[in-house]
Amino acid sequence: MGAQGRTDPFRWHVDIDRHLNPLLPASILPRLPHPVAHFLGYRSHPSKAGALGNVAVVFWAAIGVFASLAIIGGVARHIPSFAHRAVPTIVGSFGAAAVLDFYAIESPLAQPRNAVFGQLISAIIGVAVCKLFALSPHFQAIRWIGASLACAAATAVMGLTGTVHPPAGATALMAVLDDDVANLGWFLLAPIMLGCGLMLATALLVNNIQRRFPYYWWSPEEMGTRWKKTEEEHKGKEGAAASTEDMVSERDDRNSSGDLEAPEPQPTVEFTDDQKLFVSKGHVQIPSSMYLTFEEKLVLETLSQRL
């Protein structure tokens, strides 16, 4: 960001992935058994079957939506603590989430990071705002303001953390405006997380029969680069030390036999790739100085799988 960008608030950009991704562990999916990795969204080779027609997409989406909501409702009805607190059988925002998670599965908004953390963030903010506004004796009169604030705050936090999930905005809204949901207080987190987990598990099963889901779990960018760099530097130092020992030994052997001393090795010039964008088969490397939207990153990830 240049000097003008630092002084112009409209040019400020927060990208937590730039700081988090190098620290997070690299994906373990390539090391898992193929059937397991397949249903977790990993593909070692691009599909040769081609894109599905919309009839097949609609068919699997309808199966997934029905199955996920039915499972959530069935499980919720058999949890005593849910019945004791009159937890809604299905939280309303899960209807929109199901459409997104089973129909628009290529969208960054439907990936697990967004679907789970977006709902969690929105539920926390919604409950917090509701409890804050409930302190007022005029709560019912200003409740609509609290609901608007909760939805706005949830959207802002999701945007800054890269976890935008549109149905989660409804969760924040309902946490203040809907009596059945608002009465749960912090217990709302339990049915929200349970529903997210069951819907994700169903999506992994249904969406990976003929399609691929998720396209990524956390980010389409490479993760664990700092650990990988440290490991490569360690191996490089070990290799350099071994090479130096070999050269010293060879030089001593040559001197002892009367041969001329071998010339000193020339220093190796290392070039950095901070300003280069690399796309290879199954790998995308984006320089830290470049900002890409989720959609742009997904396009690069898709292209890398097709090489």
UniProtKB/TrEMBL annotation:
Regions of compositional bias (Basic and acidic residues) in chain numbering: 229-238
Protein name: HPP family-domain-containing protein
Region of interest called Disordered, as start-end residue ranges on this chain: 229-274
Pfam families: TM_HPP
Presence of the UniProt keyword Transmembrane in the record: yes
InterPro entries registered for this protein in UniProt: HPP (IPR007065), TM_HPP (IPR058581)
Domain HPP transmembrane region, residue spans: 54-214
Organism: Podospora aff. communis PSN243
The keyword Transmembrane helix belongs to this UniProt entry's keyword annotation: yes
Keywords: Membrane, Transmembrane, Transmembrane helix
Entry's transmembrane regions: 51-74, 86-105, 117-134, 141-164, 184-206
